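Dear Dr. L.,

I hope this message finds you well. Following up on our conversation about the binding site, I have prepared a predicted three-dimensional model of the protein together with CO-5-methoxybenzimidazolylcobamide. For your records, I am including the exact sequence and ligand specification that went into the calculation, followed by the structure tokens. Please feel free to forward this to your student if that is useful.
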Amino acid sequence: MASFEDLSKQVITGNQVKVKEVTQALIDEGSAPLDIINLGLIAGMNIVGSRFKNGEMFVPEVLMAAKSMSAGIEIVKPLIADKDMPSIGKVLLGTVKGDLHDIGKNLVGMMLESGGFTVINMGIDISPEQFIKAVKEHNPDILAMSALLTTTMLHMKDTIELLKEEGLHNKVKVIVGGAPISQDFADEVGADGFAPDAASAVDLCKKLLS
Ligand code: B1M
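The resulting structure of the complex is given below.
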């Protein structure tokens, strides 16, 4: 019988084939899709994070773990994203300039989609100018920015300032998130909200639009 522990272990070792196998087995055995993500895939990635921090794992291994986690998520995703659900709002999502981390941001996008939002995922390394251009083009209800590095998080502030300069700040709500981001930081840069994780991001977006 497949287990969440086994799935975490396969993520840690970066074994994409096994991650896919165990993910599929958990689905077949009736595990809830969100449990597979939270208790298996993310739990494994969290361990990778602390090992990376302690110098016990290195970038190539972390990348393999990240790829295997994404491979698992791709299998679970169709089970929780209900494309037929009417959209309750449009969210423009991206990782800020200079930042290549996208696993958490993609998870936020996936959860928002499953929560009924239309998500335009711009990807990584998005400059303030690119965000503004996309806001003008897509007219989203919410601009959602992710940052994982203390060196890139200040681009959130730059983007919000540019939004204000362009007279767009009243037309779109701004939310921020990512490991180094806090409510204090969000307040400081003038964001409308902060969410510590993907599930909270969905609640926050719903609250901001209600
Ligand atoms: Co990077 N990295 N990394 N890395 N990496 C961190 C972030 C780090 C904390 C590791 C460490 O030292 N402990 C550290 C940052 C230190 C700091 O600034 N304080 C770090 C570093 C230093 C670096 C490099 C500089 C390393 C180097 O080259 N020397 C480099 C920078 C590259 C760049 O971006 N320019 C780098 C590179 C990489 C990889 C490419 C190898 C890879 C990224 C692969 C990818 O994303 N495609 C990577 C990874 C995987 C990590 C760790 C290990 C894991 C990140 C992750 O995916 N976590 C990470 C350590 C850690 O976080 N424990 C680390 C799982 C993911 C589900 O969580 O992204 O936090 P997370 O998202 C969460 C919440 O934060 C939140 O919801 C998500 C899920 O609930 N959330 C939001 C995220 N965005 C949100 C937006 C919202 C709301 C919530 O609203 C808009």
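In brief: The chain has a mean pLDDT of 91.

With kind regards,
A. P.
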